[in-house]
Design brief:
By secondary structure, the protein is an all-alpha fold. The chain has helices at 2-26, 32-56. The protein is elongated and about 45 Å long.
């Protein structure tokens, strides 16, 4: 049960980062360094989610 809860928590953080990335990209002059960092964070979260999902099954 704890794994599913952690997956949900990471999923929410992943969605939040996705919205933050979209917001940053809508800016007339966006910060490429910040955007790259956000995308890396999002990828790390996705990898963590996939690792936990593989453990849960």
């Amino acid at each position: 049960m704890a794994i599913e809860s952690r997956i949900r928590e990471l999923g929410v953080r992943h969605q939040t980062l996705d919205r933050t990335i979209e917001d940053e990209m809508r800016r007339p002059v966006f910060d490429e360094v910040r955007l790259r960092a956000l995308k890396r964070q999002k990828l790390r979260l996705k990898e963590q989610i996939e690792t936990l999902k593989s453990r849960a099954h």
